[in-house]
Known about the structure:
The chain contains 4 helices and 10 strands.
Amino acid sequence: MKKLLLTVLMLSVIAPPAFAGDARIEAVKAEYLSQLKVSFVVMDAFKKDIEEAIHSGIPTSFTFIVRLYHKKDLWFAEELGTWRFNHTVKYDSLKEEYEVLIEEKNSREKTKDFGEVKRLMTTGTDVIVSPLPALKPGETYELMLKAKLDTVTLPSILNYMLFFVKLWDFETSWYHYWFTI
Length: 181
């Protein structure tokens, strides 16, 4: 019992800095023809402990949040919409295969290559953001993007014992991207 309590105490002290990380959003592009399509990459999202959790069979989800604003003047902006979508990976240890659900495309990708899993989990490619009303030529807009790794769900007995420890959580800062149609 003493060892368990010591382990819990160590995790609560050590875990936050170890998992804080420097995950960040980069390479943002926006293209507007009849629809607004956004692409981006989350850098440094995978830490060793997250990889170990995935390989142990724990489903892991990244939640992406995209907000779109119409810039009216220097201080005020009108929010045109908020979109949320997930990328979730599940590992099948019997088949030694990963399945990645890409929610915004309503698709499932299967692969045995963990490098491909990382790419699928951290990349948004031509994500359709459909504001109503349509965007106007000559107007300035702001995209705000954020990525979060949701809390790993622990078995109920561990959840009860470790209720104050959130494992492997991270959240990027908001990334701001301005563009004119």
